[in-house]
Design goal:
single chain, 320 residues, Luciferase, domain 3, 13-stranded mixed beta sheet, two-stranded antiparallel sheet, globular
Amino acid sequence: MKERIFNIANSGEFEALALDIFRYQAENCPPYKEYLDLIGVTASKVKDIYSIPMLPIELFKSHTVYSSTSEPQIIFTSSATTGLTPSKHYVADLKLYERDFTDSFRLFYGDIESWSIYGLLPNYLQRQGSSLVYMVDRLIEQCGSGGFYLNNYKELLSDMASDSKPKILLGVTYALLDLAEQFAPKLTNTIVMETGGMKGYREEMAKSQLHSYLCSVFGVETIHSEYGMAELMSQCYSTADGVFTTPPWMKILIRDINDPFARLEYNRRGAIDIIDLGNIDSCSFIATQDAGRALNENQFIIEGRVNSADIRGCNLLVQQ
C-alpha cells in the first residue's frame, strides 16, 4: 500500500486507498480499534471516506497510536507548554517520511536543488524530537545550501545576502516578527514562509494583519505558510492569502463542532478533520482542534482553534 500513496492520480484512487488503509488500521491500531468499538462502528460497513470516523488528536498524547508490527525508527514529539503532555508520533519508516515531505515540496516549489533554505526555528531547535527540524534539515541537505539559525539574525542576513540562489526563509512566526522589528531587512529573490505560530512568545495576530506587516517590512509580495504538525507525516502549503493546498495523498474534511459525525459543505466554518495517507503506520484519520473552512476538494483556510470544551462526542477515549 505504501507505494500507492505517492502515485494517486485522482479522487477515486484516493478514496480506494483511504478505505484500504482504514480497514487495516481498524484492526492494527489498538487505540483506533478501541475507539471504533466504543462508537459502534464496524469497519466493513464503512463504504466511503466521509463515513470514516476520525480519531481525536488528543490521543497522541495519552495512547500509543501505532499500527506497524516493526519497532519505530523515531518518535516525533510536539512542542508543549511547560507542564503539559506533548503528543508522540511513532514513525515506523523514516524513508517514507522523507519521501512524503520531499515529494510534497517538489509539487509546490519544483526541484529542491535549485533553492537555498534558511531555517529560523529557534524553539524547535532547542528541543528534541521535532519533525519540522528533521524535515528542514533534510531539505537543506538536498539543497546543498542554506542552514539553521537561532537568534543570530545578523549572520542569517549576511549569509542570505551573499547567496545568489533563490531562497526560502522558513521561520516560526514570532521569530520572523523579531527579525522584522529588529532589522527591517528588504529581502530579494526570497520567499518568506511562516509556520508554527507564536508558541506563547507573543500575542496571536490575525493572519491578514501578520502577512500584511511582514510583506511591508521584508519587501515581498506575499507570505507563504506551511501547515503541518507532529501527528502528521504530510504538509500543506499556502502561497498567498492563507489558502492551503493539500498534496494528492491528503484531504481535509470539515465537521460540525457540536456533532463530530456530521460533515459540512464547502465554505462552512467548522472543525478540521484530516485524512493523511502518509500516516499509514499510525492513524490516517484525525480530528484536529483547528477550525476552518474547506474551499474545494484540495484547498482550505485555517480560522483559529476549537475550544476543547465545545467538542461533543469525539473524546470518549480521552476521558478514560
